[in-house]
Amino acid sequence: MKIITKISESREEINIFRCVGKRIGFVPTMGYLHEGHLSLVKKCREENDIVVVSIFVNPTQFGAGEDFERYPKDMKNDTDMLQKAGVDFLFAPSAEEMYPTGSSTTISVSGVSDGLCGSSRPGHFDGVALVVTKLLNIIMPNKAYFGMKDYQQLQVIKRFVTDLNMNTKIIGMPIVREADGLAMSSRNVYLNSEERKSALCLSRSFALVHEAIEGGETEVSEVKHIVESFIKDHPHTRIDYAQFVDPETLKPVKDLSRDFLLALAVYVGKTRLIDNNLFKVM
Amino acid sequence: MKIITKISESREEINIFRCVGKRIGFVPTMGYLHEGHLSLVKKCREENDIVVVSIFVNPTQFGAGEDFERYPKDMKNDTDMLQKAGVDFLFAPSAEEMYPTGSSTTISVSGVSDGLCGSSRPGHFDGVALVVTKLLNIIMPNKAYFGMKDYQQLQVIKRFVTDLNMNTKIIGMPIVREADGLAMSSRNVYLNSEERKSALCLSRSFALVHEAIEGGETEVSEVKHIVESFIKDHPHTRIDYAQFVDPETLKPVKDLSRDFLLALAVYVGKTRLIDNNLFKVM
What letters, b where the CB count within 10 A reaches 16 and e where it falls short, cover A58-75? Predict the structure, then answer.
């Protein structure tokens, strides 16, 4: 695995393979890798000739007061994991390399970026759109892989990649969970042992929704009440949102008679966790 | 010259040449071509192996009440001109091909897009940024060529191409003028014979500025007054703006002791004309 920190070098190295017809696969990450990331890398390895992973904690997608400064890092462990996973290139640029003069350019996506994390984290998806556009333009992959834990992010990325005619296929991969159901996240490291227990309320609430649906319940307000009460019963939790939305538009659904996504953002202690589940309704 | 109307076909055709190392040059236009466009095509022909020209009257860069509906068209003549100029591919997509579902994505450039046409035509540069990004992502040229008559547009494009790490070099080419000095523009066809005479006030005002500067004048307000009075003395004219700006930032300059750009937008009858001149001060 070759580690590259410069944009120009990245272009040169990868171009060699592109121009002999090799398929380039790309997994953008913020590092502090876990099994969720590795599932993307594995899929990328299967589907492409050359696998590029980036590690870049992107300042423009963090808001004031968020955890940019303390976002966890372990470059040594990340490098080992990626090496073992058969990655060809690790692109790990500095913030100066990515934003030498900041950015005068903003990319905004309307519709799917409204609501949910778009409301809770103003400017977050603009920051994501900017850095993903930059990375896709630098790596120019045939396919890029993103986890579905960040479901809204995935929809935003698919939207602007289509709108801007970017020549990359965006692949969403299923959420990877710990044995007890907690969605894997680099931010799980922030949780103390009590919080770690409470954090199970997100994934466990999905079972309650299944039960309610199977019991014939179609009222959003009823099921929402069940979920919110369940989460609130767990110590140290504070609900940011618990929304039942259309899986395509991410607009709130009126009832639960068709497919819907339950999207959750819950503070557990000071840590903001997200999770979601797609419910297929007969 | 091959005429292509579909994005997928354009990708396929051009990819063949890209992947054998051919240099791809691109000239995006809105058609109704004149010698200004041809100067771009000529330079593009000189500097590249494959020359792609697009003709697309982009709806998203026109404001309400502007001339989108009546923008002049002459596909037959355009095609003949491009054929003679040695163009390899003419990309002429429909609006449906370019915007099958509209666009949820907006690209905005702060700084250089403020003021001048950015003030007079709200949303114009967002529309330009969107369509140029789409076209560059479709054609993926090594170099793309733009005229300096649209000086602010050129600065906006250079800015977002840099910010987004797009892999295309943006080349600005000098304004091409009629024998009497009028800057070539597809919109000149709107002018009746009286307006055509009045339209000379734009380019002729540059000589007055030269005179004033050589006479030692450095006060913006003085020279601006000379220019505005001169333009107003011509029948059917209405000044949109006459601004003395920094050639890089496009912010108004405080005095005329350093290099500056005089940027003009003047209605002649109902036709809005723009022109500009870079003044190099010793």
Answer: bebbbeeeebeeebeeee
